[in-house]
Amino acid sequence: MKILSLLSLLFLLFLSSCEFNKTSSALLASIDGKIEVDKLQTDIGGLSTTSATIKTVHGDIVFRFYTKAAPHTSARIMELIQNKFYDGLVFHRAIPNFIIQTGDPTGTGTGGSGTKLKAEFNELQHIKGTIAMARGMDKNSSDSQFYICLTTLSHLDGKNTIFGQVVDGLDVLPKLSKGDRVISITLNIKN
Asked: pTM higher than 0.85 for the full model?
């Protein structure tokens, strides 16, 4: 009886020490390393219920993904977040009343993850808090760099892939400066 009790206790301790990883759940089932964003729920505005939290020294910025309008881009960004790609990177571009930008491991604006994304231009508009992919002259040159709009920038509509919208922390955006770091970005999966 004592052995059975001891084994039960050890089993419970083992279970309690295991961390449940939501990103490996069926919601983010992956095939060949690609996240299936079509399994994520969206609201009436097209935003997924899954969000990401960008931690900065000035506060947190929470955004949600447009998984229907930009499925491949959303999946790639989620994958990079899961792999902690953005953690510690600088905001290498910060222009008041325009944008803040991150996602370059070199911190110069010329680097990336090494995987180019096909453009997913959509009907979404660049308003305050919009998150979109930075790119070069080639429309399919987006990689890991993204920017967040500090104001409405309608001249960018249809020219860059919009994949997200800030839903909390808009007040943090103008506090960010060139050289500030992303402490971390974490996914918040909601079913």
From this structure: no
